[in-house]
Design goal:
This protein has a five-stranded mixed sheet. 30% of the residues lie in helices and 19% in strands. The chain has helices at 50-54, 57-69, 87-105, 110-115; strands at 18-22, 25-33, 42-45, 48-49, 76-83. β3 and β4 form a beta hairpin. With 145 residues, it is an alpha+beta fold.
């Protein structure tokens, strides 16, 4: 994204990314503990602040949700690299990856995140188009005469 300030982020070599996915969107997410706790949410998607990347408040709320459910907003910084899909799928992929990364950091958070359905990957995908049809299931109108 052009025109937005990018942060310089180097991945610590000992940290493995958590993988989140939704439809065709795949997110690699790193969760790092903050040096000093602060109340503001620090989430960066593709080196851009998540509010600048997603713009829509609903998508921003989806991305923040894993941190808010376990009340860890002031303790962690989230960095995510996302590819593929649309903005909605990317936001859900980041949330899925963030939830998985939080469980890697603190295994006791698993129960709360699981109850919120954040650890389950949504398996729904777009059905492929079939030959002889206009779309996956749409066919030409049938005429009797």
């Amino acid at each position: 994204m052009i025109g937005y300030p990018k942060i310089d982020f180097k991945v610590p070599p000992n940290l493995k990314p958590a993988r989140g996915a939704r439809k065709r969107a795949v997110a690699r997410v790193w969760v790092i503990e903050k040096k000093s706790p602060s109340s503001d949410v620090e989430i960066y998607v593709n080196k851009i602040n998540y509010r600048d990347y997603f713009k829509d408040e609903i998508l921003c709320r989806i991305v923040r949700r894993p941190l808010e459910i376990v009340d860890r907003v002031s303790r962690y910084v989230i960095f995510a690299n996302v590819t593929g899909g649309g903005l909605s799928a990317q936001a859900q992929a980041v949330a899925h990856g963030a939830a998985r990364a939080l469980v890697q950091m603190e295994p006791d958070l698993r129960k709360a995140l699981k109850q919120a359905h954040l650890l389950t990957r949504d398996p729904r995908e777009v059905e492929r188009k079939k030959y002889g049809r206009r779309k996956a299931r749409k066919t030409q109108q049938w005429k009797k005469r």
